[in-house]
Task: inverse folding
């Protein structure tokens, strides 16, 4: 099931995420089963967007590597990193590049392959079901 991205209830976060990918000129459908997690405080990727610049570039470029390392370290301190990773993995069209939840685009691609191997092609449904169960228990 897909729904167009709507700006509510996480207007600023989703607007930021959309703008990070607007350079591709894509109209992207968000999967409502795995919404972007709520954060009571602004996330670092929103307050420090320069830290989360694109991770493309030559692998040997020290500046690119330093930026990736900084962004990953920042994500690891983020209180919504786990749910952010689920969202990023479920939304490849919205996360084709850049650092999300301490992962690069190629790392996310590898993780998606592992999820398909472990949970099947509709792994997003499995993850969404688990999230729903976990949410009901809290
Ligand atoms: S884990 Fe990283 S990309 Fe995800 S919300 Fe937190 S700071 Fe942003």
Result:
């Amino acid at each position: 099931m897909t729904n167009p991205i709507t700006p509510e209830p996480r207007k600023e976060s989703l607007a930021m995420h959309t703008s990070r990918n607007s350079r591709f000129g894509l109209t992207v459908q968000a999967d409502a089963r795995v919404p972007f997690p709520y954060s009571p405080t602004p996330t670092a990727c929103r307050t420090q967007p320069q830290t989360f610049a694109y991770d493309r570039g030559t692998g040997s470029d020290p500046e690119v590597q330093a930026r990736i390392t900084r962004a990953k370290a920042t994500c690891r301190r983020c209180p919504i990193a786990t749910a952010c990773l689920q969202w990023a993995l479920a939304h490849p069209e919205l996360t084709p590049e850049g650092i999300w939840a301490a992962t690069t685009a190629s790392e996310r691609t590898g993780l998606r392959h592992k999820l398909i191997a472990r949970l099947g092609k509709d792994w997003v449904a499995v993850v969404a079901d688990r999230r729903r169960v976990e949410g009901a228990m809290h």
About this structure: Residues 43-45, 74-75, 78, 80-81, 84, 100-101 surround iron/sulfur cluster (CB under 6 Å). Residues 15-22+41-137 form one domain.
